[in-house]
Design a protein that fits this description.
Layout (H helix, E strand, L loop, with lengths): L7 E2 L1 H7 L2 H17 L11 E5 L4 E10 L4 E10 L10 E8 L6 E6 L1 H19 L6 E5 L3 H13 L4 E5 L3 H11 L3 E4 L2 H5 L4 E4 L18 E4 L12 H6 L1 E4 L2 H7 L1 H4 L5 E4 H6 L10 E4 L4 H19 L1
Parallel strand pairs: 1-6, 7-8, 7-10, 8-9, 10-11, 11-14, 12-13, 12-14
Antiparallel strand pairs: 2-3, 3-4, 4-5, 5-6
Helix pairs in contact: 2-3, 2-11, 3-4, 3-11
The protein binds 1,4-dihydronicotinamide adenine dinucleotide and the ligand O=C(O)C1=NCCCC1.
The ligand O=C(O)C1=NCCCC1 binds next to strand 4.
Length: about 325
Amino acid sequence: MFFSLHSLIWEHEVCSLLKYGELIPRLETALGKFSNRDSAEVIQPVRTTVPLQKHSGFLGVMPCYMENEGILCTKLVCFYKRPTGSTLPSTQATVMLLDPEYGNVKAIMDGDVITGMRTAAVSAISAKLLMCPDAEILTILGTGKQALSHYNVFTEVFSFKEVRVWSRSKDKAEAFAQSLGHHVTACESVEEAVRGADVIVTVTRSTVPVLSGQWVKPGAHVAAVGACRPDWRELDDTLMKQAVVYVDSREAAVTESGDIILSGAEVFAEMGEVINGTKPAHREKTTVFKSLGLGVEDAASAQLVFDKWKSKAM
Ligand SMILES: NC(=O)C1=CN([C@@H]2O[C@H](COP(=O)(O)OP(=O)(O)OC[C@H]3O[C@@H](n4cnc5c(N)ncnc54)[C@H](O)[C@@H]3O)[C@@H](O)[C@H]2O)C=CC1
Ligand SMILES: O=C(O)C1=NCCCC1
């Protein structure tokens, strides 16, 4: 087996190598290629999930092959329904890059930073394409890892006048808001947090709806990141039915998303179709981007990390 220990790329290294300014364009290209459904561009099946019943979790296996770019990659990610108060992480991920010609492992790298950053970057791409041009108020529901990466990229890429956060515990919301800076408001209820917001990010571990369409301002954009199982929800039927629904993958949406399957909402387009110009971006309407997370996003991110890591090592 051709493999050397030098090809282990640790979390702190991924963290110092990955920058949103470089990651976002790579992800836009990858999503566009994915939506072309050209097997020489991207082969990426819906992830396989193995239930870890004893531990209330799943192992997700997320392979992707990009023939034209010579990228062969898989992510292994475990995700768990943690009990309230648990300090354990919801997800733990490892990414493996292989040589497509020989099948040897080129690099094994931390997948937690990649998962945090690529998910947030894809939500930022959805907002760039779908939020109203004069968006002023950003709300984040949830205060965990994804909440932080979403705050980081949304404030790096856009200039919101107001940022609000909500968590089931007011103390947690306040602590999170304070850790981000004095300009962030901790809200008591979801309704208070989202009324009048132009962009709403849902990054909770909830399995039942937390966000109701009756509180969402017409024309707002919702990036819905949690609820990645067919019987889990973050958004209610009212919102799903009143919004134009965009997804990362149509196949994944009808297999994995409780918000789509249980509401019966119609998928209007993939984000890659909007990037490719084959479907319109309805900025003027209420929009939901249902994110589930794709192997192609991990592959593009991991290749970027590897290229930068190699050029530093030389
Ligand atoms: N779409 C994608 O590509 C990805 C989605 N995810 C999903 O994003 C969500 C957030 O992930 P992380 O930030 O890593 O998790 P985390 O555990 O760090 O944070 C979860 C947040 O949800 C809150 N929460 C837990 N149960 C809740 C409930 N019943 N109602 C409201 N809030 C609740 C927690 O207090 C915490 O603020 C998870 O559902 C995860 O599965 C994670 C990675 C990628
Ligand atoms: O895409 C991912 O990575 C994940 N998506 C859903 C939840 C676990 C991780």
